Amino acid sequence: MHVRMLSGGLAAACLVSLSLTSGQAAAAAPQTPAAPLAARVLTYDASGSAEFRSAVDRGAAIWNESVDAVELRPAAAGQRANIRVLADNGWPRALPTTLGNGTVYIGRQAVDQGYNTVRISAHELGHILGLPDRKPGPCSSLMSGSSAGTACTNPYPNAAEKAEVEGNFGDVRAGRAPAARAEVIVD
User: Which of 33, 52, 57, 154 could bridge to 106 as Cys pair (CB 3.0-4.6 Å)?
Assistant: First the structure.
């Protein structure tokens, strides 16, 4: 997990403001890193993902390696998860409810056609993290989904996709409300 540090600029601004209101001048503290912002932890339940369990865990790990603002963790026994991951015989899809919450289906239909299970998992989790499909698209774009073809096995988000997730969850960590999403995203 990556941890992001805030600059000491805010602390210095507060010190200057306090010194001005008290009538005394004081030197600003040197710029030092403040406490790290904690990632928003989202839990996922992959107990219903059948043969795709390792692909789901790898997809979550890829997002954890790729962004700082959010961390995906397996739900503990008896814990209600933010994300449910299920296997079925249809096409892969995500049903986000709100940012960071919803259900992912790892559909066997795409796997039977030759699509990569880790790419499918990372892509569908991307929808739960607030990313839309970007079709048609190149293999370098995780959210291009099936339009990149069965030869594409890239499970990693590109720089723009990472930045969008950082923005989505950075807003949440900063106390700004994310946009509501309630849609079925079928890839």
Answer: 52
Query: In tens digits, what is the pLDDT along the chain, a chain of 187 residues?
Result: 444 443 344 344 433 343 444 444 444 445 545 555 789 999 999 999 999 999 999 999 999 999 999 999 999 999 999 999 999 999 999 999 999 999 999 999 999 999 999 999 999 999 999 999 999 999 999 999 999 999 999 999 999 999 999 999 986 545 555 444 444 556 6
Q: How far apart are CA 146 and CA 128, in angstroms?
A: 17
Let me know if 51 is a catalytic residue: no
Terminal C-alpha separation, the chain: 28
Q: Catalytic pick from 65, 71, 124, 161?
A: 124
Whether the predicted model's global pTM rises above the 0.85 cut: no
Helix count and strand count (H, E) for the chain: 5, 8
